[in-house]
Amino acid sequence: MIAKIISHEWLQWRRDSRLKWLTIFLVTISAFALWNQINFQSGLLKTRVKAQQDSRQEWLSQELKHPHMAAHFGNYAYKKPTLLHCFDPGLTIYTGTSVYMEPHRQNDFLFSQSQESDTGIRFGWLSPAMICQLILPLLIILLCFNSINGEYEKGTMALLIAQGVNFRSIIMAKTISVFLLFQGFITIYLLVTAYSSSLYLGTVLDFSALLYIWIVYSIYCFIWSLLGVLISSYIKNSGSSIAVLLLVWIFTHIIVPRASANIAENMRPLITNQAFKQLLSASIEKGIDGHDPKNERAKKIEEALLVKYKVDSVQQLPFNFEGFIMQQSEAYSSKVYDHHFSELFISLKAQKKIQSLFGFISPYISLRNISMAAANASLETEIDFQQQAENYRRSFVQNMNNDMKENSAYGSFATYRVSKDKYASIGDLQVQNRAMKWSLPSLIVEHISLLFWLVFLMSLLLISHRRKIYK
Amino acid sequence: MTVLKAIQLTKEYNGVAALNNLNLEINAGEIFCLLGQNGAGKTTTINLFLGFIAASSGTATIHNIDVSANNAATKKLVAYIPEVVQLYGNLTGIENLDFFSRLAGFKYSDKELAAFLTRSGLQSNAQPKRLSTYSKGMRQKVAIAIALAKNAAIILMDEPTSGLDPVAVADFTKICKALSAEGRTIFMATHDIFNAVNVGTHIGIMKQGSLVHQVTTNSITANELQQLYLETI
Fold first, then answer.
1. Which of A117, A348, A393, B197 has the greatest number of CB atoms lying within 10 Å of its CB?
2. What are φ and ψ of residue B11, in 5° steps?
3. Where does residue A180 rank: exposed (0-12), middle (13-18), buried (19+ CB within 10 A)?
4. What are phi and psi of A292, to 5 degrees?
5. Which residues on A lie below 8 Å from B47 (Cβ)?
6. A470 lies in some domain
């Protein structure tokens, strides 16, 4: 019975010129979004590979200098785009995917697309994910706003029921008809995105992430299909049902995401960039608790070393005290960064958690978070990149300081030079993109909220069969 | 043999009776026309026999099967022709018929489908055209073909001649009589007194949810029926 109604729906749509125009619109905008992302991401990849090579070359060819000064030459960490960045660039638009690494400071991300674009980018960037998250629900609405009340208006509902069709079966069949149509689109679009991205980016595809994205977007499509058909069954007039559905779309896609961001920001306000920098600098200078000034820390270290090595002056130490103090200073600043950045990350994650709860009001929020995580462009993956870069920075700087400590004499800052081999021994940071399962623990609320939507709408479906079935 | 039976059938909406203690028996092969003003309870009676709504009290049976207790079984025994027969405008007459037949569990060849449409009076050159090009009378014929294809012994019709031109009404009358001659039972709600006398074998007049009069058409002329109807309402 359901299959017959589905094939009947599709036959009607095939004859409907509106669907042809919708298809042309969808294919055109989807192709453009994909081209736009592939073009950007492949350009980004080329630029980053070249930048990394150039940076490496410059690192290797720099003149022989003091190891600490060489460390100040710095190094760049580049997060290479994954295939699924072409589908969903996520937060990389806002966070940037490069970071400059140098002694004494943990730098922010650089070169984000939003930094280099006008303010329009803050409303989102045209990407395949955006098409699937925002445009598809609109098209689903256009196809199913009159799926049930239209049958009443045509006088066919009574005929359908009189032929022995169950009302619930009609709703289910109408839902599946719309769902399969858009799920087919998502399937093809994801495969085309993965294939064409692999041609241009040449990186390995995370199949589990692709499968996961396909499942989640399919669920999202089903939610909207069922919602559209149910609203069409609850509202008698098709004109009113399209108005209600558009209001639901505006509420879930525009109002709730922005309201949730505002609420999260008010509940867990973030420190401003300027204040954060001042806090870091003050903590390094005066100590994390404000009662441990830098000079006194150095003095204490010196005194402790003299006692430990039973010597009268730092010159008598078996290593270069200047190198040691650099290491200690670096270690302390790392402690400061860990302390303040972890507070910052806790606040960011708390904000995200608050926003995630709004997924129970808007499934779009849940889908968006899951999609970004699967594409390796979520808050968690961006923080992870920053931490990988920071770990590398510390190891790289400590390595150079260690060279100074072990191989140079006290007071030789102006004369000691690192060996050429030392430069070559410092490898580039190879940023590890996380597998999908790495992100799963941070997506529990999102999964529950999507499940909630499914259960909620299926419950409405069960209730709906008791409604009036004649005109 | 009684095929449709209402026993003290009552339907109330918010305490107001739309149908009040209806007792009715319709035998096989009869064409029973139910007359009455809007709100008299004609459509409610049909909806109760179809199982579209639940009775507040009393019983509606089809071939002695209680409609409310076994609606799936009784639906198989009846075909329905609604007042508004728009059907699916971007499908052809054949496609519309095929769809509804399949839903009822019948799979016919194109030739068989065309035969049903021809039998219902739809010309063969119209059959492959889309319904958006059909007149109301032509769509009515497709609805009759749907009823024929369901192979039901009982056909329930709600205002079937509403909005039809005289030629279409005449065609419709002819088809109803042919169906009756085959032994099918027709139960229709209508406002059209003259057509009721012309097509029906039995006539009932309803007023405010009650069946007030029940006559046979061979015992009354159209004028007498009109007089009775006007006096009743």
1. A393
2. -135, 125
3. middle
4. -140, 70
5. 470
6. no
Q: Which domain holds residue A18?
A: 2-464
Task: Give chain A's contact residues with B (Cβ, < 8 Å).
Answer: 1, 4-5, 8, 11-12, 15-16, 153-156, 158-165, 468-471
What is the per-residue pLDDT for A142? 93
Per-residue pLDDT tens over the stretch B124-164: 999 999 999 999 889 989 998 999 999 899 999 998 888 77
Position A164 in a domain = yes
pLDDT at A107: 63
Q: Inspect the interface and report whether the beta carbons of A159 and B100 lie closer than 8 Å.
A: yes
Measure in Å the smallest separation between the Cα of A8 and chain B Cα atoms: 7
Inter-residue contact A33 to A131 (CB < 8 Å): yes
Rounded to the nearest 10°, the torsion over CA B227, B228, B229, B232 is 120
Chains A & B: contacts with CB separation below 8 Å: 72
Interface of B with A in 52-71 (CB under 8 A): 52-53
- For A361-408, what is each residue's pLDDT tens digit? 999 999 999 999 998 888 888 888 888 888 888 887 888 778 877 777
The answer to whether the beta carbons of residues A371 and A263 sit under 8 Å apart is no
Closest partner CB to A469 (pick from B52, B78, B146):
B52
Find where tokens 């960045």 sit.
Answer: A85
Task: Please check whether residue A68 is in contact with residue A404, taking contact to mean a CB–CB distance below 8 angstroms.
Answer: yes
3-state DSSP helix/strand/coil percent for chain A, to nearest 5?
Answer: 75, 5, 20
Q: What are the angstrom distances between the C-alpha of B100 and each of A69, A156, A232?
A: 84, 10, 22
Q: Hey, what amino acid is at B158?
A: D
In this structure, are strands B202-207 and A98-101 parallel, antiparallel, or unpaired?
A: unpaired
For CA atoms A149, A150, A155, A159, the dihedral sign is: negative
Note whether residue A186 is domain-resident: yes
Distance in angstroms (rounded) separating the CA atoms of residues A48 and A60: 18
CA distance A471 to A161: 11
pTM: 0.84
Name chain B contacts of A168, Cβ cutoff 8 Å. none
Distance CA A234, CA A226 (A): 12
Q: Identify the CA nearest to B202 among candidates B213, B212, B6.
A: B213
Q: How many CB atoms lie within 10 A of CB B195?
A: 22
What chain B holds in terms of domains, given with CATH numbers, is: 28-41+71-232 (3.40.50.300)
- Encode pLDDT of B173-214 as tens digits: 888 998 899 889 999 999 888 888 989 999 999 999 999 999
The residue behind tokens 């396909």 is A214
Position A471 scores a pLDDT of: 42
What pLDDT is recorded for position A97? 65
Taking contacts as CB-CB distances below 8 angstroms, the residues of chain A near B76 are 164
- Low-confidence spans in chain A with pLDDT less than 50: 110-111, 114, 119-121, 466, 469-471
Does some domain include residue A161?
yes
Of the candidates B45, B29, B51, which has an alpha carbon nearest to the alpha carbon of residue B211? Answer: B45
Number of domains in chain A: 1
CA angle, A247 as apex, A246 and A249 as ends, to 5°?
Answer: 65
Q: Which residue of A has its CA nearest to B84?
A: A155
Closest listed residue to residue A164, CA positions, set B86, B150, B179: B150
Residues of A in contact with B91 (CB under 8 A): 11-12, 15
Q: Which two tokens stand for residue A423?
A: 């430069």
